[in-house]
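Note to self: keep these together.
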Amino acid sequence: MVERHIPAGGFVCRKGEPVDHWIGVIDGLVKISSDLESGKTATLAGILSGGWFGEGSMLKTEVRRYDAVALRDSRVAYMRRDTFQWLLDHSIGFNRYLLVQLNERLGQFIGLLESERLLDTDARDARCLATMFNPVSQEELGYLTGVSRQRVNRSLKVLQFAGYLKVEYGRITVCDLDSLRRFGG
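Structure:
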C-alpha cells in the first residue's frame, strides 16, 4: 500500500492509464469524471474520506475509463493489483466488502440516472447533499452535481426555505436528512 498527498485540482489517476491500483480516499474529496473531446464533462461520482474506487477496472483488467481529481487537498491510498488479487482469492471478508461496495455503487448510478432524467437541479443538489457525510462547499457540490456554484447557491436557498438545511458562511448543516433524500420525488 502506498499513500500519496494529492493537492486540490491534482489528478489521482487519469483516463487511459493502466489500472495497477485499487484507490481509497483516506482524507479528502475526489471527483470521478469523464471528458469528451468536445469539452463536455460528466461527473460520475464523488468519493469521500473512507471510500474506495476502481474495483470494476481491477476485476476486468482494463485501462482506466475516467479521470479522478482531488477537489480538495486529499490523502489517497493505492493498493497494488497483486495485493488486491490475493485478497480476492483468500479473504471471504474482503469479497463480502467488495460485493457490498459494488451493490452500493450500482444503487448510486441507478439513482444518478434517475436524478438526471427525472429531477430538477434543486432536487439533484438535495440528493447529492444527502449522500455526503462530511462538509462540502458550494463549489464542490457544483462539481459533483454538474452545475455552477451560483446555481447551487439558488438550490440551497430553496432547500433552506423548506427547512431541510441551514446555510451559513463556509458551512451547510443538514436539518432533515430524510426529507432531503426524498426531495423532488
